[in-house]
Structure prediction request, 90 residues.
Amino acid sequence: MCVLKKNPDLPIPKGARASRSLLVRHANELRRLREEEWSYESIHEAFLECYGEVFSMSLQVFRERARRVLQKELGKEAKLLEAALRVNLE
Prediction:
């Protein structure tokens, strides 16, 4: 059974950037799994189970892509929080 919640209304991307697109799509779940202390190896296996060959890459490559997505998402959240605080102060 797939740990990830696939949205049947969204197409599965193909091509060179497909894995990154799917990691971005599942960024909240990716963060939740890391907070639950899942290893990158277990998370990689979950993505492989759900999406197949799109994630047939080395663990090192998967880990780096996942980290970049998480860092970018954290940056976006920090900017939104900062903007919300600015609005509340005014």
The first helix runs from residue 18 to 25. The CA atoms of residues 42 and 84 lie 35 Å apart. The radius of gyration is 15 Å.
